[in-house]
Automatic annotation (TrEMBL):
The keyword Magnesium does not apply. InterPro entries: PhnD (IPR005770). Residues 1-26 form the signal peptide. Belongs to the phosphate/phosphite/phosphonate binding protein family. PROSITE patterns: PROKAR_LIPOPROTEIN. Pfam families: Phosphonate-bd. It comes from Secundilactobacillus collinoides DSM 20515 = JCM 1123. Keywords: Signal. This is Phosphate phosphite phosphonate ABC transporter, periplasmic binding protein. One of its GO terms (biological process) is transmembrane transport.
């Protein structure tokens, strides 16, 4: 699986993306040193949704129990703010995608990964998820050439990405499109009237999917891990033609598009996201305690951390087979860093 991952991403020709500023919601905006009695953990917009409250609370409680410190949760409405928070030390811990990690690492050498979640096997061999380029099912036939879905037909359409610092919601699909269409400048993909007639940013994977299903965009990029709590794939999720259907009882923001379906024109594997720490605010001893706590059977079996896809209360991640946290170092992300030119 990892060989496939490397080949796919190398073909995508990914490069880094620029950061910008936006807003962050938090009870504490101050930085903390390792000697302080409190820690802050920042979450991406996709994990800042109301339905993820129980999962965020569980993460904070486990961190507090492991370190003996008060833990403040920081939710965000923009990927860039989460990156800035962990890089600057205003947050000492972050749940973030691989692209966000690499961008934060550019700004601070003190940002390091300590954990990721495994694949179904319970190992790192399949520790990956998927990024999709999707179109509405009722329009999917118009993207076929000689009976097969053709990505070339998206040029000139209205496109929705997640954020320009999202790994699976921009960096990977944009890099793949740059390679496919032999574009000199990937920035053209994020500007109105260049490659696409209009470009939207949903702010989260949920937001990008809603843009598509409400008809605000013709095409959208988003991942599977942030969407499976709201729907399910009705066929093989790993191949072009994957059909994702929103549940009839899906919570907001999908309550207005329940039952609607989208079809994948492209599917790309992505390395699972890391749990990051900023070493200026977390001691080595505390890191060891956090790793021990999060790799324990208690956390592995806690549905607030790993919940079944059909669970009524969303977990931080989806439980699939032997999914669990595994300790990692920066070396595990070498394939992604190589692709991004780091």
């Amino acid at each position: 699986m990892m060989k496939i991952f490397k080949k796919t991403l190398l073909a995508a020709g990914l490069v880094g993306v620029a950061l910008s500023a936006a807003g962050c919601q938090s009870a504490d905006s101050t930085g903390n040193s390792a000697s302080n009695k409190s820690l802050s953990v920042v979450f991406l917009p996709s994990d800042s949704a109301k339905e993820a409250t129980a999962a965020r609370t569980a993460v904070a409680k486990e961190l507090s129990k492991a370190t003996g410190k008060k833990v403040t949760v920081k939710t965000t409405t923009d990927y860039n703010v989460a990156v800035q928070a962990i890089a600057s030390g205003k947050a000492q811990i972050a749940m973030m995608g691989a692209e966000g990690y690499i961008q934060a690492k550019k700004q601070s050498k003190d940002v390091v990964p300590i954990l990721t979640h495994s694949g179904k096997s319970g190992t790192l061999s399949d520790a990956q998820y998927r990024s999709y380029i999707m179109v509405p099912k009722d329009k999917a036939a118009s993207y076929k050439v000689n009976g097969k879905y053709d990505i070339h037909k998206i040029k000139g359409k209205r496109m929705s990405f997640v954020s320009n610092t999202s790994t699976s919601g921009f960096a990977i699909p944009a890099g793949a499109l740059q390679q496919t269409f032999k574009l000199k400048n990937k920035d053209d993909l994020s500007q109105n009237g260049k490659f696409f007639s209009k470009v939207l940013f949903g702010g989260s994977h949920q937001g990008s999917a809603v843009n598509l299903l409400k008809g605000d965009s013709d095409v959208a990029a988003f991942d599977d891990t942030d969407l499976v709590q709201y729907g399910k794939f009705t066929n093989d999720a790993s191949k072009v033609g994957a059909d994702f259907k929103i549940n009839k009882d899906a919570a907001a923001p999908f309550d207005a598009v329940r039952g609607k379906e989208s079809i994948a024109l492209a599917v790309y594997p992505v390395q699972n996201e890391p749990v990051l720490v900023n070493k200026k605010g977390v001691t080595k001893t505390e890191i060891n305690k956090i790793v021990k706590a999060f790799t324990s059977k208690q956390v592995t079996n806690d549905p607030k951390f790993f919940a079944p896809a059909d669970a009524k209360v969303r977990g931080m991640f989806t439980k699939d087979g032997n999914t669990k946290f595994i300790a990692i170092s920066d070396k595990w992300y070498a394939p992604t860093q190589k692709i991004l030119g780091e």
